What does this fold into?
Amino acid sequence: MWTRGQNSSQLATRTSCFSLVHQYILHFNEVSGSKSVAIRRRSKTPGVMITQYTATLPEGKSTPDIQCKPMPVSVKEGNLVVFKAVVTGDPKPDVSWRRAKGNLADKEKFQRKYDESTGEHILEIHKLSAAEADTYKCYAVNEYGKAVCTTTLNVIDGSTNPEDFRKLLKKSKVQTPGGENDETFWNAMLSADKRDYESICSAYGVADLNMVLKKLEEKKKQTEKNKHKDGVISFNVDAEEQGIQSLGRKNFMRIEGLVQNDSAMSIGDVGEANCHNRQLSQVNADRDLLLKEFKLSNVDFVIKIQEIKAEENDDALFECVLTHPLPKITWMRKGIVLEDGEKYNITLSDNKLIHRLLIRDCSKLDKGIYSAIAGITSCSAWLVVEDQCNPPAGGRKTIRKSATAAGAQTDLEKVAKERQIKIQEEMEKILKAVKGTYTEAEKQKEEMLTGRADYGGSDKKSKIHRKNTKDGTATTFEDSGCVTEAGQQLRAGDLKKKKPTKGLVGCNTMTDPIEGELSEEGQDAEPETDSIHVQQDQEAECDAISEKQLIENDVVQQLNQFRGKQNFNKSATTQKKTKNVHWKEQASDYGQVSDDELNNSDENEDSADQGTYQRSLKQSKKPKHADNGKCVFPEDHGDCDEAENMSNSFNHTRLKRQVPLIADSVIDPGVQFIWGLSDVDAIIHESAELTCKLSSEDCEGVWFRDGKKIYPDDNFSITMEGPIHNLVIKKCTEEHCGKYRFEADGRKTEAMINVRDPPRFDSEDLSAFTRPLTVKVGHNAIFKLQFIGHKPIKVQWYRDGDELQDNNSIKIEKSTSHTRLLLSRCQRRDTGEIKIKIKNDHGFTEAVSQLIVLDKPSSPLGPAEATESSASCIEFKWRPPKDDGGSPVTNYILERQQVGRNTWKKMGEIPGIPVYRDTNVDRGQRYCYRIWAVNSEGTSEVMETDEMQAGKFAFPGPPTPPKVVSAFNDCINLSWSLPASNGGSRLLGYILEKRKQGSNIWTVVNATDEIIKDTKYAVRDVVEGMEYEFRVCAINLSGAGEYSNASDFVFARDPKKPPGKVTGLKVIETSYTNMVVTWTKPEDKPGIQDEAKGYFVEIRRADWIEWSRCNSTPIIMTSYNVKGLKSMDMYWVRVIAMNDGGESTPEELPNYIFAMPLPVRPRFTNNKMKSFMVVRAGNSVRIRVNFEASPRPEITWLKDNVPVMKHVTISNSDGASQLLIPTSERSDSGIYSVLVKNIVGQETFCTEVRVTDDPKPPGPVELEESVPGTVTLIWQPSPDEKRDDRLHYTVSKLDSTNHTWTTAAERLFNNRFTLCNILQGREYHFRVYAKNDMGISTPSESPTWGMAKKKEKIVKIEPRSKDCDLRCTPTFIVLLKPQTATVGYECHMSCAVKGNPTPRITWYRSHVSINTDTNYYISNTCGVCSLLILRVGPKDVGEYTVVAENSLGRAECSTVLSVRE
It folds into this structure.
């Protein structure tokens, strides 16, 4: 429950809502006389208080805590309110709710729920009304303590019309005990300055500031009316030193009585003056209310934040647009306010309408609901963090990207600009309305003054004489506005003006001293001594002009402030001269006012010192003593206007006016700033830009930095695009830091540029670091990175969030530009996230990698559970290892031991599924099993099972409770279902028993020797009108099992009336094969229709006549999932209610339903589809594509943009399509494309197919000799050359000395080739081969080239006998050449070696022998070593080495094979 924290009266009843464990502890302490320990402490969650009952907590136990507390909300009447709280603690705490003003007994209105998926305790308040506005509390209690948090619920009147500014402030009042009902609160508000309003409300616990301002205005009006009733005339005293913000300040003058002595002024004149002043006050109040309503109107969201789906390690961006500008809104997640920092980046636009929240480097922990709160309005959206769709190979971290809301993207800048224009128009309408109001007030004032002039007749100077009863002096009031004193000359030259004004008219006078003034006790003097001060016509006219001009200035300022103009008040004061009235007090016997005091406000016009203002107020409220000893009271300052801008208010000493002066006319304010400069944080060596906008496109300006003018150069760029002025620094350095100013037409705006040098990683090192590092257990792991940035740089290493420090197994090396982390002898527990964070004075950055340590798995988890145990087999299962060692479990090794024997029998290995079925068992024997888990790193520890017995018989389980099929006067039909367990043998039958209502004796229904074979039975031994219940048991070879639970009671009587028709039938979900139907149960009308016991759902296809029933037995739920529908067919649906009396009239849907889900645009789902394939002629061609689309799309296959031939077979199914050519031919080569299209859209995929065969040999070869020592081979092209653009030729040669064929040229695409180094006297033979993607043709041989030399007569010279050693070390005559091959094609490399004895040849790839690898064809013919790769793939990339060895030595030759796509 929820309760108010200050309400102590409910403390006694609060204990009853705690858990039973807590009550027991309290009772034990009371009985034993010991007092429980109450340790109070604050939670890490703000606003949560924890009370601990015991001094020490047991290990593993904890007091309750509220991690996520419910937030205060303001909701309109009639809506749903949801409070959520997340609670932790061990043992699990009990959560209760309570409110202050009442209870939560109404379960329909107050619903408590618990969401197991999120762990949230929920309190829902339905159909909200004003009575539910209250303070609520949430309690979490266990035996070790409790946690409490408080929240409030404000109810807003639902009738508020957002279009009416006045009604926006008329909200329902929320009573807050101890706050707004406290009289001291209102006294403090009436006497305080505006800037203190918020702190006073917070101190008194008042949350609704709008309501307080409205009520404060009403109290001020009431005070003013009370003063009018007492005879107080109020008039505005406006001085230029008050500034355009000082509105509504009043001076009050008391008229104690009126004396008419031959005067032309009557009491009616004073009444008219009072009436005129009240009209001006009312106009001021209307003006203030309009401004206040515009400023305090409820802010709403034009565009709310939307749900975002982001992949891990990406950034997520929430964006929203407000109806009114706000400098800051609150971003929250799970009740916690988010702050701008490393994880979250909170920004807003220049116009303060667009607010953004950027969540960096999203992880699974960031998933949840995020809220944006602006005033009393909020909006929320989900952030869903998904796994990476295409993780890079080797765990390499992808480039981070920002995820935004799905769906059609809205141009936020455009929406904000339109909203800004709209608010600007509203402000202009308000200004127009204020001007119209003052126009009417001027007309009324002119009419009143005209009437007064007529009343005075032709007397130009009417006088009012009054004689003092004590001294006999007389005072004369003249129409000219001057008051003269008997015996004293008028000093007209005493008027002092700071600035001369043209046409200024005024009179500075002082009346004689009045001896009957107010005493210190506040008592009035005698009526004979009362003084009269009357406003004259010039005074009233000057007041009206001043009031109107001040109102216009105030509204214009509000409009300019919204537009973003800076320093408006200062520029308005210096350039826009308003019609202010200057008042000056005559120096008399009562006191002297110096020129310094009179000019004080003008000299300090731009000052806003609040302390000075407060001291002046205190001085003004104290009586001043004149030279003659008499007491003179200054004027009383009125209350501050509510619409006054507190940040720009001018507080100066105010002097009592005597005669009005007429001020200057209004001057055009000139060029203004639409928006000013903003501070910029720039990165070193990057660009920075300052931008501002003027109200005129023709005005030029000047840029300054630290007071010095800036000129365009190589680093500074100054541009002007209409009213927008830009300053761009192309490459920032530290010397560019400073204050920048832009001046135009006397206006200026300033901003700071701070150049920062944050730390940054080397890109290559960062790319290598982000790839996961995999090591085996016991090995070392090394991470290293280089970085740059402003020194000093702090380096921190983390593993799974915990900072690492140097120890025996961790070594951290740091320097000014690089760092290195060494993890020695890694263990399996070291697997996790490795993060590095570097930070300096200018910022920080971080990088993340993964460490994976491979080890053997842990032992399988038990206990083993026997799923089947019979005479012939035992089947059992267990749980996989808790830790698979970093690689999946591939196999399990099992051994079995028969109980009573000492030997274990090996059962062999099974795949990595934790289930085993042993069929080689003996009946009745018991067995134990031992299980090992195996992965790529080794075998786990053993897990031994408990004993399991084969061939154990048992009694069958209980059947389901019997169900009443139908009931009559003489018969009750029952049915039941098979038991869940048959006990290991077949069931023989059932025994049925019955019992009357109120009896304890069960009687057998069927005879003992007549077992019921079926699962239904008709009980005829019943008495009409009696009520019975039934139970049944099953019998197997072991005997009778346990009885089932009793059935529901049923009367032996004829059936009741059929039920009525169901209501509210509708379909809530559809797919290609299913639809979900819901309805409302019919009413129970005794004598007409009885209660429904079940329902049947029937469907009918649109082209059929008969209805088919979906469920064979009645269902008791009011929803049903209809399955087995045919895709895209139309179906009619109806529902029939039934009970013992029969079936109701069917209720049918008014329209048919399509069997199809929501529309989905076609999309291919298989990312491994090939875009190119080569097929040998005669083989089959198969192209398969997988897709998703709704409704079912049309699929079209094309070959070279024309329909495929008839011999091509197309097979389509749900989500897949296949093209098949059983026997391909060369003519089938081409580009095949598939088009998937439905009503939502279409998608296309293309594949190039090349069908080829072994090529035919080229034509005859001819030889020519153009240059001695060379020979040119010319041959006829192969017949396949025209049909295969990838066909090429290879030339081999054989000379008379070598007797081996060598390759002379490869990949020839013409029919001619010239060979060099042809020696005379040798015979040469040549062969030409044709090759393509499939293989090589038979050769075409050339004629013999060259002749042998003529043999000379040989003279045989007998040499001297000499032994010759022919042995030599291996030597490579021809080296290997670098090779580049295409994926899917063959690659051939060869070299030549000599040596005696004949060397042994070994081929290596990447230092691994491949002589026995069947994927390579290796040959060695007469020293020519060849290697043939039939089909090159990415795995064949690497260094190939040939090693020749004999008894005399060893030689090597290497090359590199590159593979291209």
The chain has 13 helices and 96 strands. The chain has a mean pLDDT of 76. The first helix runs from residue 11 to 14. The CA atoms of residues 615 and 1099 lie 88 Å apart.
